[in-house]
Amino acid sequence: MSAVAAVALPQRFLSARALRERLAARGIWFAPIRHHSPACAKATKAMIAALEPAAVLIEAPAEYDELLPALTAPATTPPVAILALRKTEAGTLSSFFPLADFSPEWVALREAAARGIKTAFIDRSWIGLGAAAETSELAEERYYAQSQALTQLAHLEHCRDHDELWEHLFELRETDWQTHCDDAFAWSALARLDYETEVLLTEGSIPREAVMVDHIAKWQADTSRPLVVVTGAFHTLGLVEALGVKLFGEKIPEAEPILKHKIPNPEKADSWLIRYDLTRLNALTGYGAGIRSPGYYQRRWDVAASPKELVLNSLADIAKLTNAANTSEIISTAAVIEAALQAHRLAELRGHSFPGRTDLLDACSSCFASGELNPAIRDAIGEVFGGTKLGVLPEGTPAPPIVAEARVLAEKLRLNVSDSSRRNTTIDVRRSASGRRRSRFLWLMSFLDVGFARFIAGPDYISGRNLGRINEQWEYAWTPMVEAQLIALTTQGATLPEVARARLRASAPEPDSRSCGAVAAIIAQAALIGLSDEMTHAMIRLDQMITADVDLGSVVTTAEKLFGLWHSRDLLDIAEPQRLLRLISRVLPQVGYLLDKTADVKAEDEPAVVAACIAAHALIKDCENVASSQAELDAAADFMSTASVTAAFARLPERSDVSPGVLGAVLALGVVNSQIADELLSEKVAAIFAPGADVSYSLRFLDGLMQAAPDLFLHTPELFDAVNQAIAKLEPDAFLNFLPELRRSFGRLRPVETAKVAERIALHTGVASADIAASNLMLTAADLAAGVRLEQALRGGLIADGLDAWVEVSNE
What we know:
This protein is an alpha/beta fold. It contains 39 helices and 10 strands.
């Protein structure tokens, strides 16, 4: 009995169903499919075998006919896809036509080829649809999801959505191909009748159906043998009605828009057959018009004769992946067996001939966790049900331009891409022009994030670290996934530079953003990968927003990045590097302005602000070095003036509202650079660590000083003595409270400096420095805290036992 027999069918559908039977008698047999449906694939294969048609006509752009030899080649193994590209003024447009082992179109192609039957694609080129150039499958899936008729039918069948309804009615029912096609036609017609003609015209269905009707009619006129027409089921109703008017003279008003639509001249986009993967075919994580759980359906297709094997293997693989993740929740063999039994019970309860996708997923939810599935189990289910299979193409298959471009460039730069082995390379970027070209390519591929190159060590121009190093170290590998990722980038551009430009612009801050640091990062990235035009564009924007950025760290970071690029200007082949200096000269007054605004900073924010102050102070020296070495620049010293920054640093120690950490850092920087007298630091230290002073304030001052110039602690006796006395006078509870701050401050010392502090403490306490070194057990903060608590308990016990004198002796 028909799967939709319980639904009241509209008269328009009943008329179309009768017309479909008349067309079959005339030799036009429709295989209404849902894309990537195994049930539709099986029915289509059986139809072709039963009818032995003159030709199989498939819904796909007609220009793809030139790829039929590659599609039907024995070595071609799904998942594969046809990629079409077209360059426009707005950029590069792209479209994917994916095919899996279980896709009805793929099965139709291979079955026809095996039987020596002609095949042809009959759809309109996607590039002719303008704003409606959305892939047909995506539109169809949206129509099914939003169909009121299918929603009502899902409710009647106790299904959660149209996908579960489809599986319930089609994927899990064993029927002959004729019954399947009848039901698929009814399913799709119910969805189609929910939408007005104007909607179908606007989104492109009717213009495409006009082209398909024209192709079908021409093929029918040239043969007396049957034709099998494989199209998305959503289009079948419109095609049947239009052919009924065209071939039988029927009066069907709804078909008029299709028949009256002007057939365009043949259009063509550049197209290639490419490898695809199940991950991107997954409607939940990749291709918007894909199928849910393609990995599950791939497994079903591979073991079609053994559903029991499918259930057990799927559940066992989920358990294996979960347990390999080293989570606290392990899936036992008993749980796997229980889940398999549960899946079979659910299938029986729901009237399924064997467990389906939803039966398995529900069994996982009930047997693999007591509550909500943990992330490791969800990831494992996603991998098993999503699938990871990658397609295979015959040797010599032409590749899309971006793939060929990347491969040719890699080979030209003597990078071995002959196989997928992972290799290491060391590049001399200072003394080798070819090395710099290789570096630029690797940085470009790394930026595009296609999985080809990974930076290991060397000068990092983005962060500004290690710029003095000569060599870069990289790891790289050309794998099928690199090709897949490159192909995925074709939605953003047709060439590597075009995609990089699109990505740089996409990463740019919002128009109302005030972050100079974010724009400076784009300038550095553009310089690194050789996009001088994007670098110029970002520099113009940076120039316009400098005075709007009120974050000292962001502004100082901007100057640091610009200096890093200036110092690496020859290595990066930066045109007109003086532009960098001019931008720095614009940044300097803003740095001075923000230093003046650095007042009462919260304790938790002090380390970041102090770091910005340290970097700002370093800018003064950088500017002096540049100005003195650039005699060819007119008035270099004037436009690189650091007067505002220097003046702001001079004012900070005199301000009453400056935070203690910032004060400590500024004084330390001033003393180290001979801008502040040692006596001033000694006076400040004496006041800050005087008896009765705020200990929290004192330790924040110490931390700022140690962050800026930790060696001063050793070279300023007054500071050492004051800190030592302040710590010695702390009560045990207070010491515990301030222990994290003390560890952070003294943790800024280098090991050799820590040893010298130990020697100084030994002199003050009378303990041999060798004994202090021998007792260095790398204690943690928790260890020290436990020691203090133990001492407190011991003191309390002694006092309770009347041994107060012992406590007094221990304090002497």
